[in-house]
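Q: I'm a student working through a structural biology exercise. My instructor gave each of us a protein and asked us to get a predicted structure, then write a short paragraph describing it. Mine is PHD-type domain-containing protein. I'm not confident about reading structure output yet, so if you can add a plain explanation after the tokens, that would really help. Here is the sequence I was given:
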Amino acid sequence: MDEQKSNCEENDSEPAESIRVCALCNCLERSLHGQRELRYFELPFERPAHKRSASQLPKPGNDDLSSIGFSDSPCLRALLDDSGCWVHHWCAAWSEGVNLTENEELENVDKAIISGTQQICEYCKRFGATIRCHIEGCTRFYHFPCSAASGSFQSMKELLLLCPEHINKAEELGEDSWCAVCDSAGDLTDLLFCTGCGLHYHATCLDTGATPILRAGWQCPECKVCQTCQPGEDSKMLVCDSCEKGCHTFCLQPAMDSVPTDRWKCRSCRVCMECGVRGLVLPGTTQWFENYTLCEGCQHHRSSVCCVCSKSDNPPVSLQCCSLCH
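A: Happy to help. First, here is the predicted structure for PHD-type domain-containing protein. I'll explain a few features afterward.
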């Protein structure tokens, strides 16, 4: 039976005050959803008189889609770091009302942050959504990761989004909506959006499934990089069997010495088939079994209880282990 280690995540012991979190999607800097780097934007408010305490900070989300955004309307001053906020590049650039200047700077980000504190995402039903469907009169808003997860159409060339209700309008964009493999729009609901180059691919053309977790932060084969340290050392790259996101073996915590021959799943995609616990809520050193479908606790319980009489091995008894299901 193979023991399988979990993947990388931010250090749990890092002080809350030093953690940089996006003021829109509420994800950490090293997110798996393709939001790009965190940028600092000044806001037209006075600097807080006192440094924020950990209790004042909104609890940062992780790479589980269900934790993106804010469960309650966040207090704007709680998001302030000195006199501004940290926001992912794509979370800001795609927001309604934000403009790209001739100097490649983003303006009106402050207005987007303010509106996000009151706007609920159509997909996750949490606050912080600032990306609106491009169709006039449509009132659907999304976080950047949720826009992809929802199956919306995204155009990097135009920085516009079409919600699933209006996705048929993407055909009017011509080649921008074509699949890079079959050179046609085909089934628009099956398109995957690469957060690296902006090209689209039909999931069926790549022989994969367009699930929400795969859509969010998806990268095409040409753009795939480590989600932790970005480009380099492709020979040491692990690709998740479920969401297809990559990570170097040496970027894992704990690190791996070599690329495993068996299938590998990142922490976001690990779910115990017995207790239902997700990998993201367990420590990074937790061991997983049965192709990452059985957590360490359930494996220990399974190995100490008879599957016929349900009695434990206390007092010790001789339990035979099945060579197939263990």
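A: Here are two points you could use in your paragraph. The chain has a mean pLDDT of 83. Helices lie at 76-79, 89-93, 109-116, 144-149, 212-215, 296-304. It's a good idea to check both against the output above yourself.
Q: Great, thank you!
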